[in-house]
Write the structure tokens for this entry.
Amino acid sequence: MNDTLDRTVAESSSTAVVVPRSREGNSPQLMATGLKKNYHKGPVEVPVLRGVSLAVRQGEFLAIVGPSGCGKSTLLHLLGTLDVPDAGEIYFQNRRIDNISSAQRDRLRNRDFGMIFQFYHLLPEMTTLENVLAPLMIAHGAWAYWKQRHKFRALAEELLARVGLDHRLKHRPRELSGGEMQRAAIARSLITKPSLLLADEPTGNLDQESGRDIIKILRDLNEQQLLTIVMVTHDPAIAAATDRTIRLADGRVA
Ligand code: ADP
Ligand code: MG
């Protein structure tokens, strides 16, 4: 299965669009078993995740809901290898990823995962176009990036057009609305052609209409590109737009 996916990624890297991937496959694309995570508040250990297990199929759009403070972001950070669990295991495409080196994690996040957040995390001094290109500069290094800059720029412009921002290429984040910033963040998350998008409250800072626009973009990416999406939200109306919803309560999947 890994071979097939590697080939898909290799083939797609020469074209400007994300190549659709199969929905088939028996094993889940992403799987977590028995995840536990505690935080320390002074001398006190506060359990946040008490044994979370889940499986996500390739091409699935999954929502994770639960009240504020229940551990949704903590879980998403573990799945995205931004943090490590105290116990439990995480597998991506049949490969264990919770115990890999930081270099391997960087590679995974650069190649396979896209991430978007409630507050966009765009770089304020860069234009929209530069923000979208930034992951490629990091992934390839200055020289390799420079040699391929025309191809990369075309891809960035295509992604920005897909999220409806082709008229905002030279704007800086402070000149964009919240919805536009999130759309730029989505384009940035897709520039490395990930097969899995992790989204932490992507509409949490937006008005209803902009939030609906973002969900429509995510839904289209899921359906047209078969991009797997795991989205955290506290909003049941937002979760209703996905294929499946799981609820976190008391540190477990309810
Ligand atoms: P959610 O995203 O569902 O709102 P979080 O995963 O952000 O919840 O947080 C779950 C709990 O863990 C909260 O009680 C929060 O205060 C606590 N927490 C989150 N991150 C940290 C941290 N880095 N250090 C200590 N406590 C944390
Ligand atoms: Mg959160």
